[in-house]
Structure formats: structure tokens, C-alpha cells
Amino acid sequence: MSEAEHPARDPAHHQVTVEDVRQLMGASTPHFALQIRNRIAHLIRDLPPGQPARVEGEREIARLERLAFAGETRGLPGEGERPLPSLLPEPQSEPDSAA
Description:
elongated
């Protein structure tokens, strides 16, 4: 996924709107969450605090960071099924006391 932006959404030539942020949000997945986060950050970086598109963008950036690092769970787990490894906490390695 490229982080290049659609020319019509260039903040230098276009008043950024909440709809612009929502178009970037789309159907975000853990795999692309950080790329989308960067695109939204670039889009809203010059907007004043409290501007609706900036508020929506900051909210979405926080959601995308959670999605990128925690993954997502859809639906209910099937009986006898375990979560995917990407959704389990990292195993803690035991310190090597033989050294």
C-alpha cells in the first residue's frame, strides 16, 4: 500500500473535511493500520486544534494504533478453537541462569 495521497485530497489545495478522513479510514485492517495512520496524520497535520476533521483524524489514529498492535477479533470463537497466534500475548522467555 502506498502512502501517496490522492491529489484531490491535498491539504495545500483543498479544505480538509471529516469525509476526507473517513475515506482514508475505510475498511482498515491490522496489516495496513500503520500506513493508514500515517496518511491521516499527514492529512490533518496543519489543521487547527478542535477542527472537526482533526478531531476525527486524531480519534482514528488512536484506533488504528490499537488495531495495529493488538490485532482484531471478529465474531465468537468456535467451540474448541483457540485464538490466532497474532492475538495472543508474546511469551515471556525465562532468564538464562546458567551463565
